[in-house]
Specification:
Tetracycline Repressor, domain 2, about 200 residues, mainly alpha
Amino acid sequence: MVTTRTSGRGAADGAPVPDRLLAVATRLFAAQGFERTSVQEIVDAAGVTKGAMYHYFSSKDDLIREIYRRLLGLQTRSLERIADGPGTAAQRLREATADVVVSTLAHLDDGVVLMHSLHLLAPHIRAQVRAERRRYHERFRALVAEGQREGSVRADISPDLATHHFFGAVHHLGTWYRSDGALRPRQIGEGLAEMFLNGIAVQRP
């Protein structure tokens, strides 16, 4: 699989130490797996000492949590901007679905790391990550429910089911997306948004 490496860039010597560590850890975790990546490899690649890493991150688990927090924070701010913005619920839902696909593809290593590593984390960190993700999904779900109230989304579809169905597709982008493929991120985002909205929209005569 060929993925984008935007998350792994920015590990230049002049970058702040936490940013260098996160960039290197993301790249290594995505390339060779969380379990097979040692703290020593991370600090060597980042050009820092173990002491410097432990000043900012208590463990590899802590690095994973921060990788996810960074991506989720970006996507949450974008979703809130769209959900609270102008337009009908259906228009905002379409924009939100395309946006999360594009942002996921722009930070694909982050998503791949989480999908493959979440079950390996310490229980309390895993619970925190899942709680943060659940709050994000609930904001998306609220937009689906708003579409039902305005009459643009079918009333016979569960907003929970629609949300889980859509994010199931998002979470598996890393299993098939190729940065050198024919489809660009915006095309994929708009295509998935179209398919999702067509499936839940009220069909007008």
